[in-house]
Amino acid sequence: MTSFAPAILTLADGSIFRGYSIGADGIGVGEVVFNTSMTGYQEILTDPSYCRQIITLTYPHIGNVGTNPQDEESPKVHASGLIIRDLPLLASNFRMTQPLPDYLRAQGVVAIAGIDTRRLTRLLREKGAQNGCIMAGTVDEAEALRRAQACPSMAGQDLAKVVTCAEPYAWREGEWALGRGFGEPGEAAFHVVAYDFGVKRNILRMLTSRGCKVTVVPAQTPAAEVLAMQPDGIFLSNGPGDPEPCDYAIDAIREILAANVPTYGICLGHQLLGLASGARTVKMKFGHHGGNHPVQDLDSKRVMITSQNHGFAVDAETLPGNLRATHVSLFDGSLQGIARTDCPAFSFQGHPEASPGPHDVGYLFDRFVAMMKERNNA
Ligand SMILES: NC(=O)CC[C@H](N)C(=O)O
């Protein structure tokens, strides 16, 4: 019988939760957010947008299917820690290569189980996102509290440049699909340059599966360098932190919009498109993190169930004349999608690529491809 070391979770408001460690020994600090997805813990942990955040999952049993190399959305776990109710005694799946605790330990990530995640989630909903600290192995409550209180606010942090790739690279996975329905087999119909602010792999897969050849570039690549690659379209990725301090990206996007190249943004990329167009962003009380968020397409009136992961939002009250609202959250009325009226650019706050979550918004990738096609034919 495995025995688990003690672990505690402290919050900046003074709350202490006691449980047991199911990850590495040590300390993790960050903004504690709750995610309501019922599946996809490995995609969530490896989503770079969770950098410097500690995730609590509201689904009570986490770890049932272990972990595998296919479900990683980036090369490593980006979350600062994981909080769960219960780790099942047995993990089993035909794809499993490692149980969740071994995977977390191998990556040096702290995690705590045995926590009343309902109480924790209600606290975060009532008080708003809180900074917290997980201490696992040797536990010192006073020190863990001090660390939670010393953790800097997410507001004002530029983390895109922390998680981005070091060098440009070509996304090769799924190249067999290039050309399907477009040019000759094996020949890409469009060249997309994707800004990596913390990109999830499934976004790149969704582009490739629609006939795009994708070049990924670091967050701080100047617009002139990207435009010199003569892309058919430019993609602005998801990513961690506050969009407002990413001035290098905002400046580059302004130049790209002026060049009239079709542009599509997701999550942080959406917020940056908003800022580059003159709108403002705000920090939300506890954000949206989950796989069951209803969003309405304001043009078709269709309601979709969407995957979400954001703590900031473009403020609908600040949209300039050349930016129109295209989608709205039916949970809280917050803005979920925008489109420029004067150039081919649009973006979505949630995650059309899912991973994990429903695929209802996948049509936005088709819209991007149609935009590139139209421009090439013009
Ligand atoms: N998934 C994302 O791209 C998140 C965007 C941003 N970091 C936010 O919290 O709102």
From TrEMBL:
Region (CPSase), start-end ranges: 1-190
Catalytic reaction list: L-glutamine + H2O = L-glutamate + NH4(+); hydrogencarbonate + L-glutamine + 2 ATP + H2O = carbamoyl phosphate + L-glutamate + 2 ADP + phosphate + 2 H(+)
Enzyme Commission identifier(s): 6.3.5.5
PROSITE patterns, per the entry: GATASE_TYPE_1
Domain Carbamoyl-phosphate synthase small subunit N-terminal: start-end pairs: 5-135
Any one GO BP annotation for this protein: 'de novo' UMP biosynthetic process
Residues binding L-glutamine: 49, 239, 241, 268, 271, 309, 311-312
Pathway(s) annotated for this protein in UniProt: Pyrimidine metabolism; UMP biosynthesis via de novo pathway; (S)-dihydroorotate from bicarbonate: step 1/3; Amino-acid biosynthesis; L-arginine biosynthesis; carbamoyl phosphate from bicarbonate: step 1/1
First-level EC class: ligase
GO molecular function, one term: glutaminase activity
Residues the record marks as active site: 267 (nucleophile), 351, 353
Keywords of the record: Amino-acid biosynthesis, Arginine biosynthesis, ATP-binding, Glutamine amidotransferase, Ligase, Nucleotide-binding, Pyrimidine biosynthesis
Subunit structure: Composed of two chains; the small (or glutamine) chain promotes the hydrolysis of glutamine to ammonia, which is used by the large (or ammonia) chain to synthesize carbamoyl phosphate. Tetramer of heterodimers (alpha,beta)4.
Family: Belongs to the CarA family.
Function: Small subunit of the glutamine-dependent carbamoyl phosphate synthetase (CPSase). CPSase catalyzes the formation of carbamoyl phosphate from the ammonia moiety of glutamine, carbonate, and phosphate donated by ATP, constituting the first step of 2 biosynthetic pathways, one leading to arginine and/or urea and the other to pyrimidine nucleotides. The small subunit (glutamine amidotransferase) binds and cleaves glutamine to supply the large subunit with the substrate ammonia.
Name of this chain's protein: Carbamoyl phosphate synthase small chain
Species whose genome carries this gene: Parasulfuritortus cantonensis
Lineage of producing organism: Bacteria, Pseudomonadati, Pseudomonadota, Betaproteobacteria, Nitrosomonadales
Gene: carA
